[in-house]
Design goal:
- With 300 residues, the protein is an all-alpha fold.
- The protein is 77% helix and 0% strand.
- It is built from 13 helices and no strands.
- It is globular, with a radius of gyration of 21 Å.
Length: 300
Amino acid sequence: FLFFFLLCLCCIQEMDIVREVVIGTVTPLLKEKTGFDLRVVREYLYENAIRGFQLDFLLTIITAALFWAFVFFFSAPVLRFLSPKGYGEASAHQRSQWRNRASSSVHALFVTPVALFFVLTDEALINDKHFGISPNAEFLFCVSIGYFLYDLFLCVIDFKSQGFAFLMHAVLCGFTYICVLCPALEWYGLVFLLFEASTPFINLQWMMIQAGVKNNALLATNGALAALVFFLFRLVMGTYSLYVVDHTILSGQVDPIPLFARAFFVASGSLLGVLNYFWFYKILSFLKKKPTPVPSKKKD
């Protein structure tokens, strides 16, 4: 998180003094200890990838990250009220998972309908899907970058529970939307936010199982919706959209976009596509199992 924050500071045009102080103090120490030259990375990113990255973006990202952390920490009373058995009797580790899923659901419920609205109505992006710029879309990207930054922090401190796949997902999504803010392919960036449409259904399925819900019809219906929405948005629409973006980039239609951003779009899109199919397999395997809540480790 600290490295990401410092790198953003170093790339912002409006913060010349802060940038020079950070580079002048951190770079020698970092190079001495690790051999990593922050100045070289900063110059490359600033000249080739993040010219358009503005101070407002960074402030919005930091504010969003703090907001999602706030949702995580202060969702406990709501979860305890909604599920006194599932959340109230859970262990500390399980409660952390409850809160994490609550924050991811709030993020998905916010960005999905807003992104869909902009995809269908934002004329600046509809008329130019490659280079169109929309302040509304950029604000939404900053909110999501803040969420993935918060999610990355959780994956790092609780790697055993989250696993490598979720860590990679947070990194790839976060930096993909940073590249979108170059600006580049903002309309497709909104389309990719629609991938989150299945998240509330998946989280609700997990919460109902942990809460010991016995209504098999409800579990089956929500599980079927989770699988269907995931299939439609991530596999059908997602695979096609990733193909279009990769073809657009590799065919040279967006050469004015910085090389760094183009390369990252292609690489991250391919990896996220693989993750989508992997997770769909995990969802189907999960739905086939008999619902059994994880035993609580909370002492009497």
